[in-house]
Specification:
It is built from three helices and two strands. It is mostly helical and about 90 residues long. The chain has a two-stranded antiparallel sheet. Helix 1 packs antiparallel against helix 2. The chain is elongated.
Length: about 90
């Protein structure tokens, strides 16, 4: 992998991580504040607590699995140009 390809991939991973963080924050707001008016309780705990805490945690784990499977690439950060010239 060329050095420019490595930088391109690192930038792609950084942008995807920022977007994933924004998605988790939006989910947290929707699941917590969006369910605040609900009168549903689970184990005597309001639904907004389950959505805002446990739901956000599960969503973040799902986003992490997606990033590791489809976005992140394992590559060596060392310069391999010397090896490519041989």
């Amino acid at each position: 992998m060329k050095r420019s390809d490595k930088f391109r991939q690192a930038n792609r991973e950084a942008v995807a991580t920022v977007l994933a963080t924004a998605a988790v924050i939006v989910f947290w707001c929707l699941a917590g504040f969006g369910l605040a008016d609900s009168s549903i309780t689970i184990l005597h705990t309001p639904l907004w607590v389950w959505g805002g805490c446990v739901g956000t945690w599960i969503f973040a784990i799902g986003v992490t699995f997606y990033l590791t499977k489809y976005v992140f690439v394992d590559f060596n950060l060392d310069d391999d140009e010397e090896e490519e010239k041989k």
